Amino acid sequence: MSRQFVYQDDELIAKPFNWTQMGRLLGYVRPYRKGVAKVVFVMTAFGMISRLAIPLLMSIAIDRAIRPKDGPGSVSLLLWLVAGMLFLYGLRWWAQHYTIHHTNVIGQKVIFDLRSALFKHIQSLSFRFFDKRPAGSVLVRVTNDVNSLQDMLSNGVVNSVIDIAQLTGITIILLALNFKLGLAVMITVPIMFVVSSSLRKRIRHAWQVVRIKQSRINAHLNESIQGMRVTQAFAQEKENMSFFDGMNKSNIRSWNRASALNQTFGPVIEVTSAIGTLILILYGSYLIQSGIMTVGVLVAFVSYVGSFWEPITRLGMMYSQVLISMSSTERIFEFMDEKPAVPEKENAQRMPDIRGDVRLENITFGYELDRPALKGIDLDVKAGMSVALVGHTGSGKSTIINLLCRFYDTIEGRVMVDGIDVRDVTLESLRSQIGIVLQDTFIFSGTIRDNIRYGRPDATDAEVEAAARSVRAHDFIMHLPDGYDTEVQERGNALSVGQRQLISFARALLADPKILILDEATASIDTETELRIQEALGTLLEGRTSFIVAHRLSTIRNADRIIVLDHGVIVEEGNHEELMKRPGHYRNLVDAQYRFLSA
Ligand SMILES: Nc1ncnc2c1ncn2[C@@H]1O[C@H](COP(=O)(O)OP(=O)(O)OP(=O)(O)O)[C@@H](O)[C@H]1O
């Protein structure tokens, strides 16, 4: 079986641990540094100090109140010490509660900012970027990759600071209580670091593989759902399912592998801590028997060593979390670093109110450098003129439109609107004055009213209805269950092709652009709707410069100027009568249409 789906995005991004990127990521925490500092202060001042003081009180209780070397024990001292310990436990509980609550709030804010920044950036990227990537894989970065940083950013940063402080505190206390015993217990730490750092690389690589597999699943899901009608029409469900199963299984395998590797971190630390405790008991009892150390100090030691491994375990887990997040961080910043292929000049001005003169000067352009889609195109269109672009499929009609809206930049030549190069003005000021009606009319989920209002959100209900009436859409809208408030789902599947087209006409009319671009629908519709659309088109084009990728003879014939394209070159130009007088591409095209209609 040939492989029908190929998702080539996302090769392994195998870079070493990157402090610069980590620094960049932490840059998103910066705005909340005051909050982080507060949490760290509360946790170290109250949480950590109480943690460190409890074993000391315990040791005093044993050596002075319960079993002093000289004289009897003291119940009142014991009660005071127990009360002190209870107070410290309470303080510690409050500090922990405070920390968890605030770190979560900060983490959520950081994730919110990161996701917004990523989405904002993706929206600024040009068509070229989306040409190269399946929608699903873009989706994964905004959802999965950002989510996977959530844990690290919410608890990780704060906990690491607290853990490092606690570790330092305990180390000092252990060495101060008994320098030799402290050193003997800590001898295992370097061993642990050597073992865990060799695991580091493998774990990171394994999680990268998981992310890539997930990204492919999402890309495939996205494509499958969008293409479901075709899949069902060609009865390809089984094939599709087996392909999906393969992806799913491969994802599970790589997940299991990564997860197994990840779990080796815990045991490494446990074994090391067990060895440490063993050393402590053996060497500790020797020291007690030799009279160098008291039982109370050994009890405190046991308690400290317990809390010594705790931050190390957490830091170890945090470290593997950082490694996992590293691949997501890399993938997020890879998108963030993507520059728009159509950049805005730094000193770009706002496009003044457009009159509608358009000039294309000696334009050459290709989506790929070695395959030009347009060659030496010259076109001078005066304001208010309607231009029909005709030609065989792939001749370059849509490409002209893409350049006019500056979805791509020309390789040679320039596009001028009212005598201004489109590269000299801001994209927003240019595009907001150009209306586009695409063949595949995109209806967003929401009401019909919202959809018509899309290009001019401040339009009143009366204006929305007036626009719909002008393009003859009002009647059918009123027949929908809730009229203008009828909810349509994404892509407007419940509407017919003709109805979607009329809604997009109303949308364009309401936005009232001086330049209108229209990719005429090729789908055949009934004669009545066709007539209605033609009338609506007449209203829509009035007083605007228009470029129409035209398929219907009636539209072409009504245009002031017809441009015939062939393999990216203008081969004929004129109005219908002029072009019909001489033999050539256009006359052949019209004759072919007549033959088709009369057949
Ligand atoms: N995003 C893209 N990436 C690479 N090549 C592209 C892209 N879009 C179009 N092309 C190529 O550019 C050439 C011109 O395509 P264009 O879409 O302008 O044709 P068209 O005349 O509008 O065709 P149709 O009537 O079928 O829509 C074609 O050879 C096409 O394969």
From TrEMBL:
GO molecular function: ABC-type oligopeptide transporter activity; ATP binding; ATP hydrolysis activity
CDD domains: ABC_6TM_YknV_like, ABCC_Glucan_exporter_like
Compartment(s) of residence: Cell membrane
Keywords: ATP-binding, Membrane, Nucleotide-binding, Transmembrane, Transmembrane helix, Transport
SUPFAM superfamilies, sorted: ABC transporter transmembrane region, P-loop containing nucleoside triphosphate hydrolases
Stretches assigned to the ABC transmembrane type-1 domain: 39-322
Domain of life: Bacteria
Residue ranges of the TM segments: 39-62, 74-95, 170-195, 265-286, 292-309
Pfam family, one: ABC_tran
Cited InterPro entries: AAA+_ATPase, ABC1_TM_dom, ABC1_TM_sf, ABC_transporter-like_ATP-bd, ABC_transporter-like_CS, P-loop_NTPase, Type_1_exporter
Ranges where the ABC transporter domain occurs: 358-592
Protein name per UniProt: ABC transporter ATP-binding protein
